[in-house]
Structure formats: structure tokens, C-alpha cells
TrEMBL record:
Pfam families: CTP_transf_3. Belongs to the KdsB family. Activates KDO (a required 8-carbon sugar) for incorporation into bacterial lipopolysaccharide in Gram-negative bacteria. It is found in: Cytoplasm; Membrane. It comes from Gemmata massiliana. This is 3-deoxy-manno-octulosonate cytidylyltransferase. It is an enzyme of class 2 (transferase). Keywords: Cytoplasm, Lipopolysaccharide biosynthesis, Nucleotidyltransferase, Transferase. It comes from the Bacteria. Pathway: Nucleotide-sugar biosynthesis; CMP-3-deoxy-D-manno-octulosonate biosynthesis; CMP-3-deoxy-D-manno-octulosonate from 3-deoxy-D-manno-octulosonate and CTP: step 1/1. One of its GO terms (biological process) is lipopolysaccharide biosynthetic process. NCBIfam families: kdsB, PRK05450.1-3, PRK05450.1-5, PRK13368.1. One of its GO terms (molecular function) is 3-deoxy-manno-octulosonate cytidylyltransferase activity. GO terms for cellular component: cytosol; membrane.
Amino acid sequence: MRTAIVIPARFASSRLPGKPLLRETGKYLIQHVFEQAQKAKCASDVIVATDDDRIFAAVREFGGTPVMTRADHVSGTDRVAEVAARLTADVVINLQGDEPQLDPDAIDLLAELMTAPGSDMATLAVPITDAETYRNPNVVKVVCDDRGRAMYFSRSPIPMVRDGEPDFTARPARFLQHLGVYAYRRDFLLRIAGEPPHPLEQSEKLEQLRVLGTGGTIMLGQVPRAHRGVDTPADYADFVRWYRQNGDNGAGGTRRAA
């Protein structure tokens, strides 16, 4: 399958304006993300989708492939869909522009999951290991069936343990934290992006529930650890420290299907 990785990037951010262009490491933040995507074996194309001239110019400067999109998109998924409409790829991976530590193996796992018959979409999860994470409404949880298909995503603790306490040491893991990276069949992405928000999506404020709510299939892969995004100045400072210690070869690891 021909797989395109599309990285939506915008300049505006309530907590860290202009973060794609932060450059304390000697590279733009968006450049770190782009280079991680290029390490994935599945990548036929890696594209940065933006509506900002400054980001477009920066991507051109470091030799990347930028595409200018409309400025009125409500979500990164909509921005990715606009680019996907111009592509001939079979699968489109939506990789957030503020996740410079995402393991390329995890990207390849997404593409691998899309080879499953009937898969409209794929995403990733990591085992939850403590009660605080399990109960935190800012952490999205996911449950899947025995074939690795997502059954539901929620900000609430799922699966709920009615009697006793959850066992976070059990394997295979029953309690999973969702990681917000996605692969789509191109035609499915174009269709779902044009659908109105689903009531479940509106209730939980989770876009992926539009897929489940309308009967789509999401395959779930499990990775051993969460990748850390850059949302705040403190997050970026942590990434800079990590990069100075590890360099470009810091991200790596193993993966498996859920």
C-alpha cells in the first residue's frame, strides 16, 4: 500500500504560539517531527499541511514538502483530509506536528494495522499503569475486542471495575490509554471528514467517536510507552533537554498489535 504521512501544523496555539518554529535545538520543532516521520519504513510521502506562510517557508528551508491549506479548518483531521484529496495514496497517516519523539516503529505499526481486512482506520494505545491516569478525565481511555478492534473511547474510566480495584499488572493489558495518532484509508478519511459531528463525539469531545458512531472500524495497536507531545513551554524545555542528551537517535522501540 502507498502510505502518505501528513503532518498538520498551525502557528496559533493558546499555550505555546508559534511552536512549530521553535528552534532551540538548532532545528525547527516541525523539522524534528518531519524527520521522525521520514524514518518510518512505510512512508511513501511525508507532507506538512499548514495555513501559515512562515511554517511553509521553514519547511521549504529544511528540504521538506509543505502544502498550503485553507485557514478555516476546525481540526487537524480536516486539514489532513484537504491534502488527502490531492493524493493517490491508499493510506493516510495523521501525525501531529507537536510530537517530535514519536517512535518511527509506531508509525509503521499503524500502516501494518491497515492491512487487516475491513479496517477503515487505525490508532495506538499504551497500557495504563496507575489509578491516577485511569481516573483522569484528560486522559482518553480505549477498550478493544479480541480481534484488536476499538469498541469505545472515553474520558471516563473504562472498562469500569464494579467490584474491587483495577489490576494494572495483568497481561495482556485491559486498561489502555489512547494515543492520538491515526491512519485512514484515503477514501474513508474523505468521507468521514464530510460527516456532521456524531452525538457521542459531541458528548465526549472525541473525533474518533464519529467513526465508531457511524459504524466504522478502528484497529488498535499497542506500544510500550507513550510519546510525549509539546503543548506548553515546560514541555518544550523538557524536549530540548532530552534532545541534547539523546540527539536524533533517541526514539526507538518495539511494538505489537493490541
